[in-house]
Write a structure and sequence with these properties.
By secondary structure, the protein is mainly β. It is built from no helices and five strands.
Length: about 60
């Protein structure tokens, strides 16, 4: 049985690259970093969140 990890798509404006970032172990945020400059990004998961799946990180 295949289990897919939850992710959101992020466009890192710092280096003009796109990357998926995945949900953390605690299940309370999506965490990742730019593949070129390693700038970190964290998107918290909350009850009043958004259904959007793609974001820009500045």
């Amino acid at each position: 049985m295949e289990t897919r990890k939850k992710f959101i798509g992020v466009h890192f404006e710092c280096c003009n690259v796109y990357r998926r970032i995945y949900i953390n172990k605690e299940g309370n945020a999506y965490e990742g970093c730019c593949p070129k400059c390693f700038r970190k990004v964290k998107a918290r998961i909350g009850q009043e969140g958004t259904p959007a799946r793609f974001f820009n990180a500045r």
